[in-house]
């Protein structure tokens, strides 16, 4: 045994359930153990780990058999807890990464399927428009012609062009009402 006289005294008092001995031991070792653990983990995790070590020490005080010095024992115990923590974090990180990848893949598949469905529905809705509405709408939205330019091509008034585009939009909104959130997202 490599105990100092003070450590032996503290251990004996601790085994007897002396709260003052535990308090003294805690104040003496807590900062050193936190600094030691903090070299490998965040300060918050280090403090939590050292608190767990100290709690374990108190809860198992009656059964303590320390063959090395109390100092070595506490540092070794803290080191093991830090390693366990790092292992758990590593496993958790790998699990989260795997979950993220599988979720992203699933979302991409769903999104692709939804976009294909949306594309099909838009084509169907466009095909269902009266020819004059569809013609004015396509010229304005896809060929980016002004109402005046469309009116000249179709040989109608700009007000007629405006009416046809307005009616086309109204019919498309009704046909594609289930897809409006997706359309807003795509356009926005």
Automatic annotation (TrEMBL):
Keywords, ordered alphabetically: Sigma factor, Transcription, Transcription regulation
GO MF term set: DNA binding; sigma factor activity
UniProt xrefs under Pfam families: Sigma70_r2, Sigma70_r4_2
Domain RNA polymerase sigma-70 region: 25-90
Database matches in InterPro entries: RNA_pol_sigma-70-like, RNA_pol_sigma-70_dom, RNA_pol_sigma70_bacteroid, RNA_pol_sigma70_r2, RNA_pol_sigma70_r4_t2, RNA_pol_sigma_r2, RNA_pol_sigma_r3/r4-like, WH-like_DNA-bd_sf
Residues covered by the RNA polymerase sigma factor 70 region 4 type domain: 120-172
Biological processes per GO annotation: DNA-templated transcription initiation
Tagged with keyword Repressor: no
CDD domains: Sigma70_r4
Protein origin, superkingdom: Bacteria
PANTHER family named in the record: RNA POLYMERASE ECF-TYPE SIGMA FACTO, RNA POLYMERASE SIGMA-70 FACTOR ECF SUBFAMILY
Family affiliation: Belongs to the sigma-70 factor family. ECF subfamily.
Protein name: RNA polymerase sigma-70 factor
